[in-house]
Amino acid sequence: MDDRNADAASGAAAPAAGQLPPAPFGRLLTAMVTPFTADGVLDLDGAQKLAATLVDAGNDGLVISGTTGESPTTSDAEKAALLRAVLDAVGDRAVVVAGVGTNDTAHTAELARQAAGAGAHGLLVVTPYYSKPPQAGLLRHFRTVADATELPVMLYDIPGRTAAAIESDTMRALAEHPSIVAVKDAKGSLAATSAVLRDTDLAYYSGDDVLTLPLLAVGGCGLVSVVAHVFARELAGMIAAVDAGDLVAARAAHLRLLPAMTGFFRTQGVILVKAALTALGLPGGPTRAPLIDATPEELEQLRADCAAAGRELPRP
Questions:
Q1: Which 3-state string (H, E, C) describes 111-127?
Q2: Which terminus in the chain has less CB density within 10 A, N or C?
Q3: Among the listed residues 263, 266, 258, 249, the one whose alpha carbon sits nearest the alpha carbon of residue 305
């Protein structure tokens, strides 16, 4: 990309001027679950319905086949079919980012090319998990994947899941690549994030709903959310308040949403999101093994968490 802050998606509007820095993928993106039918088959009609519902609710974009999309247990063919279906449904009015990360550089690059061929607007590339590569290995991995297509890349730094953090010096080096334009930050270190924001023009998205407000305060541009499956309008309102310079309103929204922003992560987020979607009559379906579906007790706690945040989950 010649312009690092160029619009990452063909159908996305440029961010309005305000307090927040430019957001190349939009301000609010949901890390969308992958709907399955009751017998575990990929539900493409359901994915299209869910994608449209999320965009209608205020999401600027969607991340497809991320961790919340159960990417470790979907096949390459399923990922391609899902991406094409979502692009057909909302690709003209929202940014659609394809999760392509694995712990195999060659496979990740191939998934990147597959996503580009299907029409994705950008790529999400998670740190290679389990292998714990050294920083030089991370540099080679991310550069190789970024070189595989001309799509803009969002790095995903989540050491709690991958056991390998992208260190600040590595981030600075990766920021020199013309296609690496953003970071989904789930490291939980505002000091490290601030240092990279100071030294680069990378766009930082919160990858942890509850840390969105503090990340925006130090220079972040937006959020890749799990909670936005249910609370997109409220989260978009909080981000808009920060962009307008109204930190009092943003803080009030953060505190109202706190029960949900913590409640959805009492167990794996996808488990409780799918339970919430089922309660709301939206596509989601079951999880795939080794994940399991929410217990009745977990669903009751989630109902209480959502109610405390201002949203009732219907009962059967």
A1: HHHHHHHHCCCEEEEEC
A2: C
A3: 263
Give residue-wise pLDDT tens across range 26-54. Answer: 999 999 999 999 999 999 999 999 999 99
Q: Which residues are marked as active site? A: 156, 184
What are the chain's domains? 28-254 (3.20.20.70)
pTM as predicted: 0.93
Cβ–Cβ < 8 Å for 259, 308: yes
Distance CA 314, CA 308 (A): 14
Measure Cα distances from 67 to 105, 188, 224 in Å.
Answer: 17, 18, 12
Q: What angle do CA 78, 82, 84 make, to 5 degrees?
A: 120
Residue found under tokens 């949203």: 311
Measured distance CA(297)–CA(34) in Å, rounded = 23
Task: Report yes or no: 71 and 79 within 8 Å, Cβ to Cβ.
Answer: yes
**SS3 sequence, 25-88?**
CCCEEEECCCCECCCCCECHHHHHHHHHHHHHCCCCEEEECCCCCCHHHCCHHHHHHHHHHHHH
Q: Tokens 């609710």 label which residue? A: 57
Q: Looking at residue 18, what is its pLDDT?
A: 84
Say if residues 165 and 126 touch (Cβ distance below 8 Å): no
Task: Supply 147's token pair.
Answer: 């070189």
Question: With contact defined as beta carbons under 8 Å apart, do 266 and 303 qualify?
Answer: no
Contact 28, 97 (CB under 8 A): no
Q: What angle do CA 18, 22, 24 make, to 5 degrees?
A: 140
In eight-state DSSP terms, residue 208 is: S
Residue 231: name the closest of 107, 57, 37 by CA. 57
For residue 39, the tally of other CB atoms under 10 A from its CB is 7
- What pLDDT is stored for residue 134 in this prediction? 98
Q: List the structure tokens of 242.
A: 């920060």
User: Which residues in the chain show pLDDT less than 70?
Assistant: 1-17
Q: Name the β-bridge partners of 36.
A: 42
